[in-house]
Amino acid sequence: MEIGKLYGLGVGPGDPELVTLKAARIIKETDIIFAPQSRNGKPSVALNIVQNIIDEREEECEILQPLFPMTEDKDELAKSWDDAAEMLFEKLSNGLNAVFVTLGDPTVFSTFSYVSKRLQKKGVEVELVPGITSFTACSTTAGIQLTEQDDIMVVVPQVDERLPKLLPYVDTLVAMKTSRHLDVLEDCINKDPREKEIVSVQNCTMEDENVVHGFVDNKKYFSTSIIKFKK
Amino acid sequence: MEIGKLYGLGVGPGDPELVTLKAARIIKETDIIFAPQSRNGKPSVALNIVQNIIDEREEECEILQPLFPMTEDKDELAKSWDDAAEMLFEKLSNGLNAVFVTLGDPTVFSTFSYVSKRLQKKGVEVELVPGITSFTACSTTAGIQLTEQDDIMVVVPQVDERLPKLLPYVDTLVAMKTSRHLDVLEDCINKDPREKEIVSVQNCTMEDENVVHGFVDNKKYFSTSIIKFKK
After folding, report:
1. Residue numbers in A near B139 (CB within 8 A)
2. Using an 8 Å Cβ cutoff, are A170 and A153 in contact?
3. pLDDT tens digits along B95-138
4. Less Cβ around it within 10 Å: N or C end of chain A?
5. What tens digit of pLDDT does each residue of A102-132 get?
């Protein structure tokens, strides 16, 4: 039997209307929906985004929601990806197609890649479907331009020793998951002598979206800051 | 009479299926579609992408296709944006809503911002609708991850003296419109001693899409290169 195909599908930042027509079609056509949970019993955000599309399906589909622990423990993470790959491979081996739904885009800081690599080694065909990334969702929500003319934009998931070194050459900085590293980020930005505009968006395009000028000290997970340096 | 609303709407990279559900709804509901042409007689790429959505409309809409010249002449560009803003303001003043369709996302190197600023000064309400950017379309097409873990990503629209300075601190470089500055870009990348993977995509997600490993020396306008440096 032919092995099924795996889609790595971006569902965008949160608003169910920010799903693409292609993503909606694939969700309606595919046998298995794979949507990892980050905490036991807490429904997957990515699954919530596409729930109304799933509800419109003519045929039932199977929804798999394994647990991906929120941990920095590499062994524990690797085991959860191994398990997920095994769970998916069993279905794909039966000739079924599966779609792995992921927040934002599947090529930008997505856990999809870790599972996908394991399955590609086993000969599984993978198709990626792009999604609206959190940073363009934030800039459009905040009503600001990310880049114009010859602007250089940098996207960082955390602050390390490289940021102060490259910052002087950057016009727009996108700092993802800001709350995780707020002190060191603020310090780094304040040391840059240029005039700047700072906008932070929490839970962008979701029901409890919050747009703030400046940084926000808040432990909500989905928080992104855009820092634009004036020329 | 109340002034109409202007939408700055990203239609994604080229594939009509990569339009969001929200963008499709707004195109179906709005009175005026504004789609600048870059050359007289050459249909707007953004308009082509949404033509089948326009064809599905129950009511007719008006389509405006002014000419935005492909020039570096600042006065000529400013005049085209002034004219476009005036053309749109006339319609909006009559209480009609308008949607400005733009390739990719309206906050990433989009001409929309220049027209939008002029209209916001006149009190026009502007809503931005994000679109799939060319760089995530390219990474998904090429089947590669843009960023994982603590990766730093930089997006540049051209090569200037800042690129060699910040490059050592970068894991992923996205170079847009590569053909415009290929020699200087290649030179800059070659000087970096790290092992690297280079993928270039021309006319991403369009019918004549072309994925190449390495750079491509070709004057096609829509060409993006992704350079991933190994750690």
Report:
1. 105, 107-108, 128, 130
2. yes
3. 999 999 999 999 999 999 999 999 999 999 999 999 999 999 99
4. N
5. 999 999 999 999 999 999 999 999 999 999 9
Amino acid at B84: A
CA distance B24 to A22: 12
Q: In chain B, what percentage of residues exceed pLDDT 90?
A: 82
Question: What local confidence, expressed as pLDDT, does residue A177 receive?
Answer: 84
Q: Which residues of B touch A105 (CB under 8 A)?
A: 136, 139-140, 146
Question: Quick check: A217 pLDDT over 80?
Answer: no
Q: What number is the ipTM of this complex?
A: 0.95
CATH of domain B134-229: 3.30.950.10
pLDDT > 90 fraction of chain A, expressed in percent and rounded: 82
Q: What is the residue extent of each domain of chain B?
A: 6-129, 134-229
In A, which residues are within 8 Å of B151 by CB distance?
109, 157
A119 touches chain B (CB under 8 A): no
* Tokens at B15, concatenated: 């594939």
- Residue B228 has φ and ψ, to the nearest 5°, of -110, 125
Strands B196-202 and B223-229: antiparallel
- Kindly state the tokens that stand for A110: 């997505």
Alpha-carbon distance of A14 to A113, in angstroms, equals 20
> Can you count the helices (H) and strands (E) in chain A?
7, 10
Query: Which long-range contacts link B145-148 to residues 24+ away (Cβ below 8 Å)?
Result: B145/A107, B145/A110, B145/A113, B146/A105, B146/A107, B146/A108, B146/B172, B146/B174, B146/B226, B147/A107, B147/A108, B147/A109, B147/A155, B147/A157, B147/B171, B147/B172, B148/A109, B148/A113
- CATH code that applies to domain A6-129: 3.40.1010.10
